[in-house]
């Protein structure tokens, strides 16, 4: 009877209306992504206003380190989402619990090793990054505390992956909201030493993040056990808290290519920044603002891509391939609608949005508006590439989407922007966005239609 009640309470992504389910599932992911971006921006404002540019530069160095660390586990967490989703879709709850048990031990061990490594070699890492001497002392203080909090960061990412794989996107968002509110509220209190809180300077900002993540993670675990979440590890499940090398192999083999996708995007953006720097400070400033704006524009595509991955994984596990196909094209349509609406609003108020970041006088604001006019609409195409790639990856076919990203962003975008901009002018850099996204979307759609991705396997099918 209890098992039947638990089964009835589980999120089910293999039945019901696809469009409604997709929108309701992707909205918490989208809001969570927006929340994380705003959290980082607000904390930067606190640090910049209270401690100045040197402290802000120190946090930027730490954020670069954390980006690469989170990139390294992003793919593995996504592999866990797919693996759990396929097991849940196929009704193999005990197999899903094995993934949870192994992932818990693996993420915990990895996070502790990385935290110790960072604490011991923090100074050396900052030297490798050519951190300026006047920034390094601030950076050391901030980065060491951030490294100490890695187990909580990894723990939250793992639980978020488990919940999304089982079809629950709301619960991670609620506790992410709690973490963000705590972080934003504690930052000024601990930086300045307001009320009963000690004045800690830049260490206060890192400590605020540390405790926000610790409290949020602890309350999330308590909540899941009180709700009797069906994938929780009970006393009877303790033998599952062990390393299953078959599961670890799958998580790494399928996860690393997905993590490398983020690295490809980062390298492409760094090369573009290097190219734009050659056109002067105003162009660089305008490009930075345009990229800040586009980082919000692409959030719907990222959220819908994550949602279709979870939905398609469960339906592949349930062997409902016609529903997988409907999920794919519904995801494309929802992405075009959501992204298109945001783009239309931003272009309608283009000057107002850009002037929020740049002074009204000077050339930079005009350049920023021009970049928006040429690039923002192309993120609808980026969404097609991302959504179809998410469906393909949900089957376990992870290499082709990585290859497509490499071709489009490094073999098409960068040579196009570099070579042709010298011949045809500055605008070619911005046209490289729709061109590269179109190449990526076309290749992913062709592979989706004619490739052998449906034959990929994350888990062995029962005989």
From TrEMBL:
InterPro entries assigned: MATE_fam, MdtK-like, Membrane_Transporter-Flippase
Which superkingdom heads the taxonomic lineage of this protein's source?
Answer: Bacteria
One GO cellular component from the entry? plasma membrane
Q: Please state where this protein is localized.
A: Cell membrane
Write down a Pfam family by its short name: MatE
User: What keywords tag this UniProt record?
Assistant: Cell membrane, Membrane, Transmembrane, Transmembrane helix, Transport
**Under what name is this protein listed?**
MATE family efflux transporter
Species assigned in the record: Paenibacillus whitsoniae
